[in-house]
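TICKET #2291
ISSUE: user wants both folds in one file
ATTACHMENT 1:
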Amino acid sequence: MAALIETAHVSPRTFYVHFPTKNALVEEYRRRFESERPIAAEAELERGDLPAAQRLLAIFVPAEGDWPVLFRGCQFHNAAVEGAGELPAVADLAQRHKQAFRDHLVATAAEAGAVAPESLGRQIAVLFEGANALAASCNDTQVFTDARRAAETLLNAALDNPPTV
């Protein structure tokens, strides 16, 4: 906290008026991150230039930039893990974000015409979250290609007319 106070160039009193606890600080950071900067995968699901089936596959692209520095998994997952049960508001925010993302995948699967959109959306969420975690822990973006291929197999099985991807 001392380093943050020094970096912010504010007095400890001013800092603690705005963020009385570590939990309050982390929660506000996560809330602002969630409202101001959607994760790349969420932006892919919103693209208007792709059909729904292709948007489901487009989420499996690692963040651009310097991989080791800029991309270390999901910020919400990381915050929940760092909190280790000690920051319930942060864990709740991460859980709400993950549920909303999963719901968005289910809705996109339904839009694509999946026979069982709930199942497909949840399975794609598992692939995406797993790829994020494995890519971060192994510092390897190849896992996104592998996850995309698995998602394509699931998607083709779930659609009456598989897309050309």
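ATTACHMENT 2:
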Amino acid sequence: MANLIFSFEDMGLKSDKATRNLVKYFARAGNAVVQGEAIPTVKRTAGISYREMVLTFKDSQKVIMRIKQSGDIYQVLLNGKVIPIKHQDDHVKAITEIVHALDSGSAKFQAMLVKLQAKPPAGIRTAAPKMEAVLTEKRDTLKTAIATVREEIAKLAETV
């Protein structure tokens, strides 16, 4: 028995009822979707016509669901990798499976993001070392000026 949250036709609408429904179910399952979009164009692979729904979650993980014309899920890509789904014709159970995959791979995905942090190319130099030297020199000059003013104040206080 199929338990479908949305239909293939819902994904082509400008109001995007399918995405709203899916986002609501993911939120109930404990994973907040920060961006969701149903791609209205129909694609065809291996003789199967489908539409894609792209969901980005709060931890930057991305799920692409490929939905067949019958309404069941043809394929799910989690961060670009295909994951197996047992309940293709039951969206609620499929969401539970996807949420489990998101949660189990979250730590690994975050570690990968840390490794991919942008580093400047070898030929590019930053101004930070020069700026640090300039600011240090400025600070030292100000400290000397403050010390001089304090000495003058002390001399004036003694004469009064």
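RESOLUTION: both attachments delivered.
EXTRA DETAIL ON ATTACHMENT 2: The first helix runs from residue 17 to 28.
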